[in-house]
Request: fold
Amino acid sequence: MKGVTILGATGSIGINTLDVMSRYPDRYRVVALTANSEVERLYRQCQTFRPRYAVMGNELAAEQLAARLRKELPGTEVLSGVSGLERVAALEEVDIVMAAIVGAAGLLPALAAARGGKRILLANKEALVVAGAIFMDEVRRNGAQLLPIDSEHNAIFQCMPDGFERGLAQSGVRRIMLTSSGGPFLHLPAAEFASITPDQACAHPNWTMGRKISVDSATMMNKGLEVIEACLLFNTTPGDVQVVIHPQSVIHSMVEYLDGSVLAQLGTPDMRIPIAHALAWPERIESGAGRLDLFEVARLDFEAPDLERFPCLAYAYEAASRNDTSAVIMNAANEEAVAAFLDNGILFPDIPRVIRGTLDELSPRRVTTIEEVLVEDRRARAAANGIIKEMKSDYCQ
Ligand code: NAD
Ligand code: MG
Reply:
């Protein structure tokens, strides 16, 4: 019986994780569920899964949840804040931590899981992008296991040979081919980007996901974050990670070997597949996902990404090639810009402008500690919000 903590249980990945786990009640036990402020949803999840701990990032929400659970589920202890999230990520009775908080907010809890030597199922790519080598060092030092949930990285992991941690060339691998659906605006002319609404940006053609990652998919910043994620997970450089647009999202990514062999992982676009893979690895369990019907798919298309219309991908390639806080600054600016766009404060094409402006305004640094990373993250958010404020006041005139 494996004890599991789900960080971000009320989100798209969290809900899919509970769906897979509930198929194997003799194999997995929910120890802790966490959310930021969705009291009602976490309350209902607690009723169903009866965890030992429930954590709300938001203090007020934690009080509300505790008031509702006190009588009904006295066995569930309610904790709050980052310290509560860190605590349930590192509990003795927990074997597996699903890191599915969105954004850099998930960094400290994911790091606590690494320091606790857990099997980390990593959906929260921003945590890895921001902490970079520091995160990977903590994983290695504490004997933690990092299994990717991002469908592309999970696919690459499945296609990689044993011992890939040594680096691609040492493992007979030439490069990684990272597939991308291209998002909802793959062929929309740039002139029409300014009229894109938040709801249009969140309507992804193949995947149902949280709103932040949906906007990232639409700007292709998601693929950019994934290039950086791939470099860290597979110990390689951005020059060996090729982005391939593949609108059907059937091939989840590929690995090209020195002999010319290309291995791919295919499946329906259903996150329960990588979740089930990483939960049970190296065994296999049923995920509940539909089976792939190649006759229905009928064809697979591929094209090169357009970095002019989707500059976020270019910014990420640039950040990936630098051994400084460029990725921290880029990620923080992106998070603030996406939040402002979702709030109808700025336009869709303003998102890359905020990121570019923030990167130009701040000089990246070399950092070696998480504390320094957090300082840089805050500095970048302040700069990005300054740019957003100016844009908003321009729109008001
Ligand atoms: P979501 O918005 O649906 O859920 C986010 C979860 O994080 C919620 O439970 C929310 O309560 C929690 N959360 C948000 N802010 C928090 C904070 N400050 N403190 C504590 N908890 C907080 O997001 P999602 O789509 O499930 O994505 C989660 C992560 O997984 C993201 O990093 C995303 O990039 C990654 N991912 C998602 C998918 C997908 O299909 N949804 C695929 C690949 C990777
Ligand atoms: Mg992905």
User: Anything to note?
Assistant: Residues 150-152, 226 surround magnesium ion (ligand 2) (CB under 6 Å). The chain has a mean pLDDT of 97.
